[in-house]
């Protein structure tokens, strides 16, 4: 329903942020990793997921698309709900989590608060085949790109570029201080 929400961070708490946009404050439940990069007054974009359950609706926010994609995979694991998936994402970096799942490292997953051995094993069994080498490589590339570069890559992909080509073009084109539009324009040879 909501792809993303961009606005000024009005409040933060131990597991959520309130993002104000167009006079409306949206409470987003976020991982600890996302929360670390949130300061009241900053303008940020959060990719979102709306969880609808019998007892209510909750909006979850993610600083990166990759974090949201991993969240969507985690909530499909039996016994892992949106709150648990957010806790898992906050337990380590996205790159480390992808690597731990791909390598079948249950001990590392058990190090996350609230994750027992059975849950860790279930996550690995259900996701190991779905997380491949491309996710690990993509994980490294995404973490190397700042928000402006990531947005420029998304625009190029929407224009029909292959993701790898878009990332390479943006990395070559981007210079500190450039806007998204300037980066895209330069990346396509303008």
Describe this structure in words.
It is globular, with a radius of gyration of 17 Å. Helix content is 49%, strand content 21%. The protein has a 5-stranded antiparallel beta sheet with strand order 3-2-1-4-5. It is built from 10 helices and 5 strands, in the order βββαββααααααααα. The mean pLDDT is 87. Helix 8 packs across helix 9 (163-173). A hairpin with a 2-residue loop joins strand 2 (16-21) and strand 3. It is an alpha+beta fold and 190 residues long. The chain has 3 domains: 4-62, Beta Barrel (OB fold (Dihydrolipoamide Acetyltransferase, E2P)), CATH 2.40.50.140; 65-136, 5' to 3' exonuclease, C-terminal subdomain (DNA polymerase, domain 1, Orthogonal Bundle); 145-187, Helicase, Ruva Protein, domain 3 (Orthogonal Bundle).
């Amino acid at each position: 329903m909501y792809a993303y929400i961009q606005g000024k961070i009005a409040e933060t708490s131990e597991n959520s942020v309130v993002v104000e946009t167009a006079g409306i404050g949206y409470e987003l439940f976020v991982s600890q990793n996302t929360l670390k990069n949130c300061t009241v007054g900053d303008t940020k974009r959060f990719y979102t997921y709306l969880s609808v359950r019998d007892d209510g609706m909750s909006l979850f926010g993610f600083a990166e698309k990759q974090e949201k994609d991993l969240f969507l995979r985690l909530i499909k694991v039996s016994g892992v709900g949106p709150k648990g998936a957010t806790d898992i994402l906050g337990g380590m970096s996205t790159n480390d989590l992808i690597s731990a799942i791909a390598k079948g490292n249950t001990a590392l997953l058990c190090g996350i608060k609230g994750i027992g051995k059975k849950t860790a094993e279930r996550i690995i069994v259900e996701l190991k085949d779905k997380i491949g080498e491309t996710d690990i490589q993509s994980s490294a590339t995404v973490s190397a790109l700042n928000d402006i570069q990531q947005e420029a890559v998304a625009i190029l992909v929407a224009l029909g570029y292959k993701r790898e080509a878009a990332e390479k073009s943006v990395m070559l084109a981007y210079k500190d201080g450039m806007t998204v539009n300037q980066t895209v324009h330069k990346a396509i040879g303008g």
